[in-house]
Amino acid sequence: MDYSKYLSTRAHALHGALGKQTSVPIPGLINLGSGTPDFVPPPFVMEAMQQALRENKVQYTAWTGIPELRAAIAEKLKVENNLHYDPATEILVTSGAQEALMTVMMALCNPDDEVVTPAPHYDEYTRDTRILGAKLVPVETTRETNFTVNVADLAAAITPRTRALIVLTPNNPTGTVLPEATLRGIAQLAQERDLLVISDEIYEYYVFDQHRHISMGSLPGMHERTITVNSFSKSFGLTGMRLGYIAAPAPLIEAMLPFHHAMMICANVVTQYGGLAVLQQPRDWFKEHLKEYDRRRHLWMETLDRIPLPYSEPQGAYYIFIDIRPTGLTSAEFCARAREEARLVFQPGTIGGGAGEGFIRGALTKGSPDFETGLDRFTTFVQGLLK
Ligand SMILES: Cc1ncc(COP(=O)(O)O)c(C=O)c1O
Question: Which of 31, 168, 205, 370 could be bridged to 235 by S-S, CB 3.0 to 4.6 A?
C-alpha cells in the first residue's frame, strides 16, 4: 500500500530528516562522537525510583510535575543559577529538554515565523521549527572566533518575522561557552528588539578551565524575557529517563501547558522521583566525572596536536569540533570513510547546519580502553589521509 497520500505535507517535508538509526551495536565499531554520557548516577537515585515503584507511584502527576520536584528545581535554579522562579506557576517538568524545546516552539511560533540562533547549533532546533512550518535562521560562526557568535551578526539576522533567539551555551556540537560579554550583548539585543530568548542550558555542568556558565535569565532585564530549558540527561547521566524542565514567567508556562499536555500529560512519575533525589542530595559525585571528561579532553587535544589537525578548543559541553578540511574531504565523506576504514563513528559537523561543513563532532563520552584505542585508530586513519 502506498501511504504517502495519507501523510501530511509536514510529514513529507521531514521524510528522512533524521537519517537511519542503527539500534544493534556493530562489533568493533567505536563511537567517538556520541552524545550519551558513559556514567550513571549514584545508587541513591536508582533507589528513589525503585522506592517510587514499591509505593505504587504509577499514576499521572500534576501536569506541571510533582510539587516537591518543582520546588527542588526552583531551589537549584536560585542557588546555582541566580534565577528566581515560583515553583507553583513558573516551572514545567517535561520529558527531557527535547519535549521542552518543542513545547516552547509550539507556544511561540506561527507558520513562517523565524527563530534566530548561532550556528552550528543543536540539530533538533531545525526540525522543531520545520514541524511548525516556521524557520530556523542560523547565524554562522567560525573556528577563528572559537564559534563565538558576533552579536552584530545576530542583530542583522532579525526581521519582523523573528519570534525568538535561541542561545545554547555550552554548545553542542562546538563545545563553545559564550563569554559574559557576548551574553550581555545578546541580552541587550533582545531587549532593544523586544524578543524572547530560549536559553538551552543542558550542558551547564560541563565547563572547563576558566570558563563558567552564566544563565541568560540572570542578566539584568532578562528574567521577564527568558525561557530557560534544562534537563537531567547530561548533568546526571539520565538520558533514557527523559526528564527535563522549562522555567519561565507564569503567563508563558500557562501558554505552553496545552502543548505539553497534548504530548505527555505529565512527565514519567518514577523518573520525577529520581530527579527529586538527585536535587535533594549533594551533587559532588558529578565532579569526578567532570575530571575524567577533562582528562579525555586533554587526550583528544594532544592527539590532534600530534597529527596535526586543527580543532576548536572545547570550553564546555562534552564535544570537540575537529577541523577536517586539511584532509580535503567533506564532513559526510570523512564520517563514511572513518566508519568503513577505521571502524570509528563521528557526527558530521553539518548536523548543526551548513556552518559545520568541514568539521566533525568528536566527544568525550567514551571510556577507557575504547577511547584510547579509538584515538589510535583515528591517528592512523587521518595520517593516511594527509599523506
Ligand atoms: C543542546 C541540546 N538540547 C537538548 C537536548 C535534548 O536532551 P534531553 O535528553 O534532555 O531531551 C540535547 C540532546 O542531545 C542537546 O544536545
Answer: 205
Domains and CATH numbers, the chain: 25-41+285-386 (3.90.1150.10), 44-280 (3.40.640.10)
Write down the pLDDT at residue 24.
Answer: 73
Q: What is the DSSP letter of 77?
A: H
Which residues have a Cβ under 8 Å from the Cβ of 153 and sit 6 or more positions away?
139, 140, 141
Work out the pLDDT band at 386, boundaries 50, 70, 90: very high
Cα distance between residue 277 and residue 87, in whole Å:
17
What's the gap between Cα 114 and its chain centre? 20
339-382 pLDDT, tens digit each: 999 999 999 999 888 889 999 999 999 999 999 999 999 999 99
| 352 or 130: which leads in pLDDT | 130
The minimum-distance atom of ligand 1 relative to the CA of 122 is: 1
The response to whether residue 229 sits with its C-beta less than 6 Å from ligand 1 reads: no
Whether cis (ω within 30° of 0) applies to the bond prior to 27 is no
Instruction: Find all residues with CB under 8 Å of 173, minimum gap 6, and list them.
Output: 120, 122, 319, 321, 347, 349, 351, 352, 356, 359, 361
Tell me if 97 sits within 8 A of 230, measured CB to CB: yes
- For ligand 1, say whether the CB of 31 is within 6 Å of any of its atoms: no
Grid cell in block for residue 244? 527535563
Q: Is the CB of 96 inside a 6 Å radius of any atom of ligand 1?
A: yes
Residue 290 Cα, ligand 1 centroid: separation in angstroms? 18
The x, y and z cell numbers of residue 371, run together, are 577511547
Mapped to the 3 state alphabet, what secondary structure does 219-240 carry? CCCCHHHEEEEEECCCCCCCHH
For residue 152 the three cell numbers come to 552584530
With 80 as the cut, is the pLDDT of residue 239 above it?
Answer: yes
Amino acid at 2: D
pLDDT of 159 reads: 98
Q: Is any atom of ligand 1 closer than 6 Å to the C-beta of 38? A: no
- pLDDT of residue 22 exceeding 80, the answer is no
C-alpha 97 – ligand 1 centre gap (Å): 5
User: Minimum mean pLDDT among 22-26, 263-267, 325-329: which range?
Assistant: 22-26
Distance CA 156, CA 140 (A): 12
